[in-house]
Amino acid sequence: MSDVNTFSQNLDSNPFFQSLPIYVQENIKQSGVKISNETDLRKCAENLMNSGC
């Protein structure tokens, strides 16, 4: 669980997250989805840009 919290708390410093459109960043932050690593982040971002996370 701490891995999820640590990764999620540091999203703003993640280079991939910073490269995403602002609306995707905001949707990820506000969604409350559990993201524990960059693979989860990439999947969520892809889903958001295609339909919804």
Q: How far do the termini sit from each other? A: 20 Å
The number of distinct β-strands equals 0
Mean pLDDT: 89
Low-confidence stretches: none
Strand content: under 5%
Global Rg: 10 Å
Q: What is the helical fraction, as a range of percent? A: 55-70%
What is the overall silhouette?
globular
State the domain count.
Answer: 1
- Count the DSSP helices: 4
The biggest beta sheet, please? none
Order of helices and strands: HHHH
Structural class: mainly alpha
Short description:
With 53 residues, the chain is mainly α. Helices cover 68% and strands 0% of the residues. It is built from four helices and no strands.
SSE layout and pairings?
Elements: H1 2-9, H2 15-19, H3 22-31, H4 38-50
Helix pairs in contact: 3-4
What does this structure look like?
This protein has helices at 2-9, 15-19, 22-31, 38-50. By secondary structure, the protein is mainly α. It has one domain (2-50). The longest helix has 13 residues, at 38-50. The N and C termini lie far apart (20 Å). 13% of the residues are buried.
